[in-house]
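During the first year of the project, the team set up a workflow for recording each protein of interest as an amino acid sequence followed immediately by a discrete structure-token representation. This format lets reviewers and collaborators read both layers of information side by side without switching files. As required by the reporting guidelines, we include two representative entries from the current panel. The first entry is reproduced here exactly as it appears in our internal archive.
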Amino acid sequence: MATHHGHPHHPAAPAAPASPPPPQWQPLNWSFPFAPVSGNEADPQTWLSSLANSDGGFYPLGSNGMYHGGIHFDAGTGGKLKQGDGVRAIADGEVVAYRLDSTYPELTYPTTPPRYALYSTGFVLIRHRLVLPPEPDKQGTSSTAATAASGASATTASSPQAYQPPADEVLEFYSLYMHQLDWKGYQDARTGGGNASASSIHSLPFWQGDKHFRVGGKANDRQAQLRQLDPTLNFGSPSGLLNEATLAGGTLSGPAPDSMDTLSTYPDKVRYTVPPASPADASQNAGTPQTGVHICDHANGTVIGLLPRGGELSVVGNVAKGWALIATITKGIPVAAIAGGTPDPRAATGWVNLDELDAVIDPKPLDAVVVLDKPFPVKAGDVVGYLGEYQDPTEASMLPPKREHPLLHVEVFAGAQIKNFIGKSQERAKKLPDKPLLLIQQGAKLVKPADPQSNDGLKGLTLALATGKQGDPGKGLWAKVQPTKLAAQPSTHGRGHNHNHPASGTPVGDPLWVERTKYAGKVASGPVPTWAAFPLQLANAEGPAVGYQQVFPRAQLDEGREIDRATDDQGTQWWSITAGDDEGRTITRWVCEKNHPDTLWESPWAWPGFDTVDTTSIPLLDMYRRNLFEAKRLIEGDDEKEFSTVAATVNAGQFIGKLEKAAKRQGDGKGNVVPADLRNALTVRWLAEAVSHVIFRYESEWGGDMGKWEKFLPLMGELGKPTWTTEMERIKKLQWWDKVKAVKDFPADPDVWHMHPIGLLGNFFQNSTESCDCAAPFKKISKIILRHEGGYVNRSDDKGGPTNHGIAWSTWQKYAEEDVGVAPTLDNLKKLMEQQAEAIYLKRYWQPKGYCGFKDERVALMSYDWSITSGGAALQIQKLLNQKYHSNLVEDGGMGKQTVNAINAIPDQEALLQDIASIRRRYYTNLTIKDPGQIGNLKGWLNRVNDCLQVQV
């Protein structure tokens, strides 16, 4: 029985059944199709500008001038995006259908000599549900409460019920990932053939067919290392405490003393080694622990063995995720949990975590549309395929075609209900409090910074950061400083947040504003550009007016460059943005977060900037003829007058009119926009946004009668007709719409509404993170942090000075009045209550430093708790992410958006947690080696690590 302080812990009496919590609406999670190689991951323009490098397939017109409802990722975009890792589901949803080519079909063009082209018909179709948030006064009330399922009584009373929205508050939409890798490509990747990388291409879990699992690169478990405790080691001496191998290898890992056959799960126990069966075994195995997947005696139980990498197994039942029971090990032999130990025979039929294994499926059927009997759930960011091959007629070859034209088409569409849904959504947005999108309206004027004064009276003075209620905001391009006669202060290493003693000095004159990185905190050596008042004032909003409406997610603005952000001494935020005037010229000036004329904060549910247009009345043939005329590609025999009339009619329509204004800097009203204009528009932020916000309806090329394509034959000329006839074979083979009609509620008619995938993501992506309750995950771990920090201390060996609940003296002076509402005195610091400390932690450290965005709360706890004790925690984690997980981060020591995203992208969060714990222990050990004065803190630091590992968040 577990005991605490010598007293048994008796089981509590069963609690009375609690009422189930009211059903809660949950926002949809979103993900961009590919991670960028570089750039702001919160900015849709990162992806829109990448699409400008595509060889074709622009939205909403293809290179042939016809309707095109998707976007293309190919070799041109590959330099900007991490396409080799696979395409990711853009939102939570469920796979409803797919097709996998056995090998790419081959077209034969009847030229002399014949030419050949490969293309992929493979696709994955995902259904998503976008649900309106309930009205604020209705959320959780009986009017929106879910009806309990028939089996609800069998579940725990505290299980939350699913939120059941009214039918007209749900938009079912679909994302399509077309022209995917064929089965041969997967096989080549597995064997190392072709150009595919075996480490990045894996079977997809929703494929039908015989399934087994391989121990691959995701499996990072290791056998425990045999270690003998040194009987001569004196644990009371500093040398004993500083023996890192003992701390990390003997004390913190290894076999448990109470069993030779199991591996303890309690890292705080001292573990002893078990001698191997023979000296020969020890020499061969003891020093070389193998890597693979742990095998446990039950789900998440005691480790009884390990199947090394390269092994393969099948499991009992149709399990795809989580823990599963081994049915058969088909390749490889399990080894003992401890290197050099005797294998446990139970491991052959033990339990493994499938999330650490690669699913290997012999997919059946191939070359056919598969409609899943039970849709397969996927999360935003899950890999759902890889780029396939697509060669157009100009890329056809007289030789056997090679795989050298990678392509993936991503498309988003919805049925007829979308217009009503958007209308209701816009009405609901008026009642919602969360408005994370900054809307810059047409006609707005931005602010230019005031000119500084050259101040030559500051030489020799320290430009110390101003303190007090209206002191320096602590961030932004400009800093508020107090010129001070101040002696240089020695640097210190603190144990808590910003631990250092308050500086003293003699203020000289009034506070001033200076450029932060150039002058703040430094001694002026000559004239300094200064401002008596904050450089940005709404009274200075003048100059050219904004000509294009623009929308900026707040997260995108906050993740921008430091030189593009500013905060005044009232805490008001400003951002430098780029806009366009009526003539399409660039304006780069500042916008204020509040009270800025012709700007407002808006909800994503208002769909700001989006516009719908129905094009089904314009025949596809007319779109093609219009493009031939506008692109001046008429051939002999074409009736120019007829083509001109068709072009004029199409250009006068609403669709081309909207595109002209969006893509051609308002245009001249002639409607002569062509696909090349769409490519150019993608490189200009305000133009790209306008294009990506057009929602239009047309008949999908994946369905419909082939008769509309046969009408093109007369336009092809005698030489082109055979090629077009061959091309129609491809069009027919690519179609899948009629085969997917069996999917419940799938649109029967291929006349559907298309949305730009990046435009849609850019609108809602930030909302999925901005709308989260940052306090909720913090409250789960705050008690642990406070327990670690303890109460009031003022030890002579603690360089941080007076500290209570981890809040150091300097932090208390800075935030006591604003965050807690009390004077920043030492007496009040001694009286600091836990709730007050939590308020400072949440507002000043947890939320602004990104920990709210962690998807795994234990990883967040481990990282945050480390950051409290050490300022170098984030840098060490970044190094780990780069060296082991190849995250390609800038090692700047900040827990920014890119670092948080890299952490969340690690599939095995448990392995990451253990990795962070390991480097954290090593960091503390090395710290005490460098500074023996810290030896008294080492035991407590290591206990914190163990506590973070064991706690159930």
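The second entry, processed by the same pipeline in the following quarter, appears below.
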Amino acid sequence: MKQDFRLFLEKSLRESQPIIFDGAMGTMIQASGFTDYLLPEELNSKRPDLIRGIHEAYLASGANVLTANSFGSNGIKLKDASFSAAEATTAAIENLRSLIDARDRSRFKQEVFAALDMGPTGQLLAPMGRLSFDEAYEAFKESALAAEKAGADLVIIETFSDLYEAKAAILAVKENTSLPIVALMTFQSNFRTLTGSDVETTVCYLESLGVDALGFNCGGSLEEAKTLAKLFLEHANLPLVSLPNAGLPVIEKGQTIFKVGANEFSKVQKEIATMGFSLLGGCCGTKPEHISALVQDLQHFSIPKNNRPSQRRRSSLCSAEKTVYIDNSFGSTGPVIIGERINPTGKKKLKEALLSNDMSYILDEAENQIQAGSHILDVNVGLPGLDEKEKMQEVVAALQKNYATPLQLDSSEPEVLEYALRYYNGKPLVNSVNGKQKNMDDVFPLVKKYGALVVALCLDEDGIPSTVEGRLSIAKKIYAEAQKYGIRAEDILFDSLTLTLSSQQEEALVTLDAIKAIKKEIPGAKTVLGVSNISFGLPRRDIINAAFFSMALYAGLDACIINPLSEEMMASFNAYRTIAAFDDKALHFIETYSGTQKISSSIANKAATKEDLSVSKETEQKSLFAKDDLQTIIIKGQVDKAESCVEKLLHEGKTALDIIDGCIVPALDIVGKEYESGKKFLPQLLLSAETVSKAFGLIKAELAKTGIQDEAKGTILIATVEGDIHDIGKNIVKAMLENYGYEVLDLGKDVSAETVCDLAVEKNIRLIGLSALMTTTVLNMEKTIKLLREKEKEMAGKFTIMVGGAVLTEDYAKTIGADFYAKDALASVQIAKKIFGK
């Protein structure tokens, strides 16, 4: 019989009682000694007694939440299986549900819930990979529907390393079931996910999607788990979950062993509970004894209420890699700039770029604004004759692929907003809603569903009021309507509307006074203005704009929609931040303006003759920051510019080899160093790799023309070992090795030891790369290495073997007989250079 996990969660939080999750499933299957299976999910039908026995052991340990054997039960992972994801999920939940319902309640007195374990697809989503958001969504939807029908009480979305994929899973569950969601990400030793998200952004992103609890699972050492816990507590509002591994694995007597015992594990988890985490359990390597020790240690324990996450009154938005806070109040992060230039109104060149699909121009506009200091970029693509919905998604996808800056989605069409919101990777800002009832009915459901911030215009069916009281009244009406949807004041940016001095001079101060009134009367709400409309039709617009901007900031303006390429506007902004003590010790101001001179009157007068300062300087802006040399293009990942730049270099007389040795390899080395130092993350690494691939297309053609053989530096064989269907890491390694000029023979995933050995011998391979993600498949990696070593005896040479994967360490790699441990794709490149000498 299904039970209400949300009610239990609320009760436990109210009473400060911890909720205990179970431990590892794979570890227990491995410990059983049963090996006659290809995928763990098939055991739900093949050996239900084994799976139920594991569940019963965790039940006896005192766990409240038992997790189904369904981690890989999605249609993408099970594409080649003899059973469907729905069948695997149904069997997994039915095994668990029947055990829970039939338990001896006099013996097992704790509340117990059945959880669907929803793991990732094992593939990178576009644009980093080939799997589309919709394909991932459909795979998760199938599992979620089957789980609810079979009797699941909740869904644990766990071990995700890509927030975009987690979004697909969360939406699939929320849109098709009523099941509560616990969302858990896994982090690397740098406390970022594989795709570059830090804890701050993870919290902002997941909370915006309306999950019931969030946190982390799997990962590295218990010390790292404690650090992660502290980071989550700095940012979270929702209940927090800690499911770490029992330390790092080692190999002993052919078995994967986690050496952290039950008492040590429980001690660390109790520390994390004391910090303020309410939901605790285990991941890889944890067994019933670990959970039993945790239950005993927390038996009479209360989570300190003062330590638990509290409702922070923050206004935040994010991309997948970066979080921005909006708050112009003392002691906060300060006001932010919203770059206004990706909007075709009054911009002939941008109109042409949108109509001709010139994405390079749009990306240059974005980069110029980011370099100038924009914290957020407005994106508006509304043009007659253009499919706004498709173009908005296309531009947003390109911007997110290239830059981490969060976006403001700007459209008056609800269907355009919904499409953009669904596929946006992060928590965006929506522009806009207003006080008209139909508009609120259209926009607020979207804002709530996708967890966005929203700009609220102080106008309604009667237009824009001419008084402070009138605009405040509309703001209150909008807020009252927003509350019906559960939208917080902190997620609304009220726009008191900037009217032109030339026609409504007396209302400029009304706009500023309305900012103060709104912030006073609606605590937590933020304000936003499009500033430069104030000067329309006047000479020397820069003077009026800068003065009005400074007055608005002093009135409490939180978000400023301006042209960040206007030096006068940015000077006003930077000066205000310094005077208001947002710029600590004036360090940014000094760095920006030390050694500079004021703008000359001649330049200012020249600028003032432009029709509109906020949209002028087209030619200057295009070249202000962007450089067109190939190294820079590769480092920035400017895919669309790669071919034209190579053509230019060839036309100038550079040879193909000159370009490879003088531009491509040095650029890749710089990208690699920035990746290793934490300045770049996986999306940027792959974007640079894609840029190189584009450049190589022309270079290879040029080599063929000149008769020079395009010889590889060496041939490398790579494979994901038998039983493991995760190949994200392997595919990244392949991309990087190929870009450095190596030929890569990719055998794919779930590859037998015999297949690897046969091809290695046939092709006389010098370097072999093996990948495994799961602890249960590392044994097959060891088996493959042993077989390769046996084959060496029949050969004159020796195989060099490098291994990688989430559960591996340097010591672990040596234990199983590997020559090298590749912690990431760039490490594999360094190993290849060492082996081949080039």
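For the second entry, the following points were noted during internal review. The domain at 627-707 is CATH 1.10.1240.10 (Methyltransferase, Methionine Synthase (B12-binding Domains); Chain A, domain 1). The chain has four domains: 5-297, 316-622, 627-707, 711-838. Both points are flagged for discussion at the upcoming steering committee meeting.
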